[in-house]
């Protein structure tokens, strides 16, 4: 059976789809699992041995262009984890016989099976809602998956080369101060400096700051703000897979709830993560797919006094690492 799984949005969203792709493949290894992804996630999808084929949905391409790609893939059944009208119509035009998706506004009319999930109620995490849709394909499917879900044979060597290049002598606490996607809560850069100083003053860990390839200005700003401190500033230029291999060697990854947090948890790194104090953006919905015992979550409230109290708790957490 050729099974299409559609999750063609941002990095963190795609990572929440990976357990679903894994269980569908392992339910019957004879299944061919095809992932429809955004260009950003192509490299990561190709690195997963439980994904057999990858279809890249170019964001500016027409619904007819996407439909043509899907038609050529000869799909038997599709599972759309997050739907919109364009994606739904493309599958209809591609004449995929069975099309499963959450019941979502107008888009649902193009699917053959619509599942009412009410994700806004946050009764489960996003990746758990995704897994629930796999049950609609195979009622007896085992939803268990390994944690970490993704391992790389050469990750240890890549980390060892990084450590040698930057004269790192201790375990690493990494800070990723930028954010994007659905994240809408974070500390200020000045507050991050305070948090980084907590780790540096303790002296048990070395500190690495990581930046995406489009964060040059942020990289330069943090270099200025941390002038005189012993910290490594690293801009990821080699792509998601290379970055995943590197951060799998870090002891902790500290960031807001953004795609890099999900990437760190995917490869088994301990995470300290900041979420908005709202149900939609909370850890209850956006906790990552990794081992929950390796995830530490802090909700950042809007109220000034409450925010200050949470900040003190984070300081203590980093001081006590």
Structure, explained:
The protein has two domains: 2-134, 3-Layer(aba) Sandwich (Rossmann fold), CATH 3.40.50; 155-319, Glycogen Phosphorylase B (Rossmann fold, 3-Layer(aba) Sandwich). The protein has a six-stranded parallel β-sheet with strand order 3-2-1-4-5-6, with helices on both faces. It has 321 residues and is α/β, with parallel strands linked by helices. The protein is built from 13 helices and twelve strands. 40% of the residues are buried. It has helices spanning 11-15, 18-27, 42-46, 63-72, 85-93, 126-134, 155-165, 189-202, 216-225, 240-247, 259-266, 283-286, 304-319; strands at 2-6, 32-37, 53-56, 77-80, 98-102, 113-115, 172-176, 206-211, 232-235, 252-256, 270-276, 295-300. The radius of gyration is 21 Å and the shape is globular. Helix 2 packs parallel to helix 6. The model has no long low-confidence stretch (mean pLDDT 95).
Number of separate domains: 2
Mean pLDDT: 95
Shape: globular
- First-to-last CA distance: 48 Å
CATH hierarchy class name of the largest domain: Alpha Beta
Largest sheet: 6 strands, parallel
Please, what is the CATH homologous superfamily of the largest domain? Glycogen Phosphorylase B
Q: Give the structural class.
A: alpha/beta
List the strand order in the largest sheet: 3-2-1-4-5-6
CATH architecture of the largest domain: 3-Layer(aba) Sandwich
How many E-type strands? 12
Radius of gyration: 21 Å
The fraction of residues assigned to DSSP E strands is 15-25%
CATH topology-level name of the largest domain: Rossmann fold
What is the overall number of helices? 13
Helix share, percent: 25-40%
Poorly predicted spans: none
């Amino acid at each position: 059976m050729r099974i299409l799984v559609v999750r063609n949005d941002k990095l963190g969203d795609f990572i929440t789809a990976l357990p679903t792709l894994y269980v569908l493949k392992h339910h019957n290894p004879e299944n061919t699992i095809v992932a429809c992804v955004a260009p950003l996630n192509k490299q990561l999808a190709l690195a997963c041995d439980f994904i057999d084929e990858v279809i890249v949905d170019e964001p500016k391409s027409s619904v007819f262009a996407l439909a043509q790609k899907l038609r050529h893939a000869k799909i038997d059944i599709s599972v759309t984890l997050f739907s919109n009208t364009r994606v739904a119509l493309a599958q209809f035009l591609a004449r995929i016989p069975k099309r499963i998706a959450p019941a979502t506004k107008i888009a649902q009319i193009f699917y053959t099976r619509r599942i009412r999930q009410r994700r806004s109620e946050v009764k489960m995490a996003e990746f758990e809602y995704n897994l629930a849709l796999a049950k609609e394909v195979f009622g007896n499917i085992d939803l268990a998956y390994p944690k970490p879900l993704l391992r790389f044979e050469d990750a240890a060597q890549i980390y060892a080369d990084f450590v040698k290049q930057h004269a790192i002598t201790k375990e690493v606490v990494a800070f990723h101060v930028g954010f994007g996607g659905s994240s809408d809560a974070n500390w200020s850069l000045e507050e991050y400096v305070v948090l980084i100083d907590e780790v540096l003053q303790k002296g048990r860990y070395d500190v690495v700051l990581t930046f995406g390839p489009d964060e040059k200005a942020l990289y330069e700003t943090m270099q200025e703000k941390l002038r005189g401190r012993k910290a490594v500033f690293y801009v990821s230029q080699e792509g998601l897979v290379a970055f995943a291999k590197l951060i799998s060697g870090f002891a902790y990854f500290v960031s807001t709830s953004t795609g890099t947090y999900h990437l760190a948890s995917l490869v088994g790194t301990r995470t300290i993560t900041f979420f908005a104090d709202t149900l939609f953006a909370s850890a209850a919905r956006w906790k990552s797919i990794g081992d929950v015992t390796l995830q530490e979550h802090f909700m950042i409230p809007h109220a000034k006094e409450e925010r200050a109290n949470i900040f003190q708790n984070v300081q203590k957490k980093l001081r006590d690492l």
